[in-house]
Every structure is written in structure tokens, then in C-alpha cells.
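User: I've been trying to design a sequence by hand for this structure and keep getting stuck. Would you show me what you'd pick, starting by listing the structure so we're on the same page?

Assistant: Good idea, let's start from the same input. This is the structure you sent:
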């Protein structure tokens, strides 16, 4: 897949999103959580990368004043390691900047070295931890921030 194209997530993506979510996370969001994000949460912005009309990656964030809280990002296992996650996150950051966002933040499992490498690649810095944040294993969350210079 050359040059992943990033577009707004829509309800028709949700079957694929649910599959990717279940393959990607120890505590997956239920489908209804995505429905609420798309239909009710006016702060939420979700994006999809598609291949032949099927969603293969997605990411979302909440825009709160001039901060963006990245809620999730995932790539279908068959499509990982091809630059799609990086292109998607970069597209989300560019979108946020175009809306006046000055800083981006997220939480990630301490053991998720691949995701931490991706975030570091795009300029995110570690800013602390939340002890025992993940309810399944009591694993710590690393808090990361990306600040956009003026
Ligand atoms: C994290 C995730 C989104 C990365 O997506 P991806 O499309 O595979 O990543 P990319 O191919 O764009 O690679 C981006 C960067 O991630 C890092 N990376 C990717 N695969 C890696 C691997 N196997 N080992 C170490 N670092 C890796 C590299 O820093 C890479 O940048 P580089 O190629 O310039 O060195 C994907 O692995 C995923 O969906 N994981 C499960 C869900 C998840 O953990 N989401 C994050 C929750 S906080």
C-alpha cells in the first residue's frame, strides 16, 4: 500500500474497526463506544485508513480547547510495519494543528515498545506515569506529550 490516505471514520467502517480493535487490545472498546464517539461526542475526531474499501487502521482523539487527547490508534496486524501507523498519526497531528491544537497527549502501556517507538519517532516525550492504570494487569501507563512550537 503506497501513501496511505486518511479520511474521517464513518459508521460503515465499524465492522472492520471492531475486528481490528479486538485483534489489537487486551481491553478492546465495545462497538457501542465507537458509535458514541461518532454520533454523540462533539469533541471526538476519528480517522480511518482504507485498503480496497476496507478499514485497515484507525485512530481517534478528543479536541479540548488547544489540547488533543489521543484515545486510540491501531493497525490491522497484517498491515503493521509498513508505515501506516506513522502516516495515520502524522495525519492526525496535522489535522489537529490545522484546528489550532498546541499540544497532544496520550497514555500507553509501559510494555508497548512498538507504540512508544512510534510516538517518540513523531516527537512525543515521556512526561510521567500513571501507576497501575490498566485494570487487567495493573500495568503502569506512560504519559506522553507532543508540544507544537509557536
Ligand atoms: C503501534 C502501531 C499502531 C504501529 O503501527 P504500524 O503501522 O505497525 O507502525 P509503522 O510501520 O508506521 O512504524 C512506525 C514506527 O513504529 C516503530 N515500530 C513499528 N514496528 C516496530 C517493531 N516491530 N519494533 C519496534 N518498533 C517498531 C518504529 O519506530 C517505526 O518508525 P520507523 O519505521 O521510522 O523506525 C501498531 O503496532 C498497532 O496497531 N499495535 C496494536 C495497537 C496498539 O498498541 N496501539 C497503541 C496503543 S497506545
Amino acid at each position: 500500500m503506497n501513501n496511505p490516505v486518511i479520511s474521517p471514520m464513518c459508521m460503515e467502517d465499524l465492522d472492520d474497526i471492531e475486528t481490528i480493535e479486538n485483534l489489537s487490545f487486551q481491553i478492546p472498546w465495545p462497538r457501542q463506544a465507537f458509535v458514541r464517539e461518532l454520533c454523540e461526542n462533539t469533541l471526538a475526531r476519528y480517522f480511518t485508513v482504507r485498503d480496497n474499501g476496507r478499514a485497515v487502521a484507525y485512530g481517534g482523539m478528543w479536541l479540548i480547547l488547544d489540547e488533543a487527547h489521543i484515545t486510540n490508534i491501531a493497525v490491522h496486524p497484517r498491515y503493521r510495519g509498513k508505515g501506516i501507523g506513522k502516516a495515520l498519526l502524522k495525519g492526525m497531528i496535522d489535522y489537529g494543528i490545522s484546528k489550532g491544537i498546541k499540544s497532544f497527549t496520550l497514555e500507553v502501556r509501559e510494555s508497548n515498545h512498538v507504540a512508544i517507538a512510534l510516538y517518540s519517532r513523531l516527537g512525543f516525550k515521556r512526561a510521567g506515569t500513571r501507576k497501575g492504570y490498566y485494570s487487567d494487569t495493573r500495568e503502569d501507563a506512560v504519559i506522553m506529550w507532543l508540544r507544537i512550537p509557536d
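That's my pick for every position. To get oriented when you compare it with your attempt: Strands lie at 6-8, 44-51, 54-64, 67-75, 103-109, 125-130, 141-147. The CA atoms of residues 20 and 99 lie 28 Å apart.
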